[in-house]
């Protein structure tokens, strides 16, 4: 019995048998040539039994919805790398596991996005959430986004809003407002003008500090004031 348990534990913690994740780079939306700034997303997906926890189509929807809204501040995103996480990372239950998930993978210059099977609400026992923008507790300058596989299409855009300096808000039109609203269709939600202004300031600060690197600049595309 002990041998069986040890074998199972070793199997779960072993590096995943990686499927070809190139499609998550090659078949997801690219930054538009019409948008001056392009930021990379490094995607990390839990893999179980040789299968990624979410599909290329799901990731494409997340990126497309974010790009549609961030283009207002002259920003687009594109997946530049995708790698596999072990099955032991499928459920993220507490703050320590949020720290442990991102810490070994963090690097500056890109937004790291982790896709897991279940993301617990650390404030309400027994509940789960769709996504979180998480700051490493030992060094809050190290931060990343965690998405649950049940996340809706606007979840990444919401969490990137936090990444760009936004708190939750009460603007009716804002996807940072978590209050259910009958008057707004989900697809119509974006950011309010004061939020866009704040996001521009945080965008410029992250560029200055190297938290994000503009891939459009690397490609030699002309940059326009934003």
Automatic annotation (TrEMBL):
The keyword Zinc applies. InterPro entries: MetalloPept_cat_dom_sf, Pept_M10_metallopeptidase. One of its GO terms (biological process) is proteolysis. Pfam families: Peptidase_M10. This is Matrixin. GO terms for molecular function: metalloendopeptidase activity; zinc ion binding. Keywords: Hydrolase, Metal-binding, Protease, Zinc. The lineage of its organism: Bacteria, Pseudomonadati, Myxococcota, Polyangia, Nannocystales. Gene3D superfamilies: Collagenase (Catalytic Domain). The keyword Zinc applies. Coiled coil: none annotated.
């Amino acid at each position: 019995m002990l041998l069986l348990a040890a074998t199972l534990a070793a199997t779960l913690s072993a590096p995943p048998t990686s499927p070809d994740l190139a499609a998550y780079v090659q078949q997801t939306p690219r930054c538009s040539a019409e948008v001056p700034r392009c930021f990379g997303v490094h995607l990390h997906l839990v893999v179980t039994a040789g299968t990624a926890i979410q599909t290329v189509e799901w990731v494409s929807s997340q990126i497309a919805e974010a790009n549609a809204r961030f283009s207002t501040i002259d920003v687009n995103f594109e997946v530049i790398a995708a790698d596999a996480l072990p099955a032991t990372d499928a459920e993220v239950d507490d703050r320590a596991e949020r720290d442990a998930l991102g810490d070994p993978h963090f690097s500056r210059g890109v937004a790291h996005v982790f896709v897991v099977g279940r993301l617990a609400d650390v404030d309400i026992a027994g509940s789960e959430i769709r996504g979180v923008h998480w700051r490493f507790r030992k060094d809050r300058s190290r931060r990343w986004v965690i998405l649950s596989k049940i996340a809706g299409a606007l979840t990444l855009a919401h969490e990137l809003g936090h990444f760009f300096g936004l708190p939750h808000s009460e603007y009716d039109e804002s996807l940072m407002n978590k209050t259910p609203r009958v008057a707004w269709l989900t697809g119509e939600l974006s950011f309010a003008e004061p939020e866009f202004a704040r996001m521009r300031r945080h965008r410029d600060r992250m560029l200055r500090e190297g938290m994000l690197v503009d891939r459009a600049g690397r490609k030699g595309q002309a940059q326009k004031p934003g």
